[in-house]
Automatic annotation (TrEMBL):
Protein name: Endonuclease V
InterPro entries named in the record: Endonuclease-V
Location in the cell: Cytoplasm
PANTHER family membership: ENDONUCLEASE V
Binding site for Mg(2+): 47, 115
Length: 235
DNA sequence: GCGACAG
DNA sequence: ATCTTGTCGC
């Protein structure tokens, strides 16, 4: 079943409000915990799909057993677009529906893997940080693109990494998850160290460039979006 | 001032 | 994110 998500009271309306909210919430970030060890407990992927025509957004949360990468729980939520896409403000577009999907799970999420960034963000408060602070859960971000950040080329072997840099600051890591394939861009969200975030990412990529969590969540939210838009528009 | 820019 | 056919390769 798919739950319905509304836009929370007090949700930012303008970019100025949204940026101010990020600056407030950043004070609650916890960056001095290592986080759960890879291969133990649960790992949960979250992702969102949009339909620009109808303004509908669908989110999915998929819980995997961290040791076997088997799916142990799934949930989806549907809502309306809560903010336009603005680079640096992605969280305001995705979080209400993601929270609804997470809340509908009947198992503990454990570590949450986001499709996007955490600390690698203009104000050091990307989607993964935001979701972590709001839920209290350990979170990391694994993105497909380097955004505005720079990095040297990691070695071509799986497991090779290079610092993801914002000027002099290491805000994440370009991590090769498959031999000879474009790296992914890992950054810390909340209550997880960067080393551990990379270890989790490697544990979640035995076969593909992207983490199993992201792949499962991506497939599920697309399915949920199709069903939601099909319901709204009969043939 | 003008682009570029996670999804 | 999303619009989209065929095609190369394991």
């Amino acid at each position: 079943m798919t739950t319905t998500a509304g836009i929370p009271e007090g949700w930012p309306t303008t970019e100025e409000q949204a940026r101010a909210r990020q600056d407030e919430l950043r004070a609650r970030l916890v960056l001095d915990e290592p986080g759960p060890p890879p291969g133990t407990g649960h790992v949960t992927g979250v992702d969102v799909a949009y339909d620009d025509e109808s303004d509908v957004v669908a989110a999915a949360a998929v819980v995997l057993d961290a040791a076997t990468l088997r799916v142990v729980a799934e949930a989806t939520a549907v809502g309306r677009i809560s903010f336009p896409y603005v680079p640096g403000l992605l969280a305001f577009r995705e979080i209400p529906t993601v929270l609804a999907a997470l809340g509908a799970l009947d198992r503990e999420p454990g570590l949450v893997v986001c499709d996007g960034y955490g600390l690698a963000h203009p104000r050091r408060f990307g989607l993964a940080c935001h979701l972590g602070v709001l839920t209290g859960l350990p979170t990391i971000g694994v993105a497909k693109n380097p955004f505005t950040f720079t990095h040297d080329d990691p070695g071509s072997a799986r497991g090779s990494a290079a610092p993801l840099l914002a000027g002099p600051d290491e805000v994440g890591r370009a991590l090769r998850t498959r031999d000879g394939v474009k790296p992914v861009f890992v950054s810390v969200g909340h209550r997880v160290s960067l080393d551990n975030a990379c270890a989790h990412t490697l544990a979640l990529t035995p076969s593909y460039r992207l983490p199993e969590t992201t792949r499962r969540a991506d497939a599920l939210c697309r399915r949920a979006l199709k069903e939601a838009t099909a319901d709204a528009r009969p043939a």
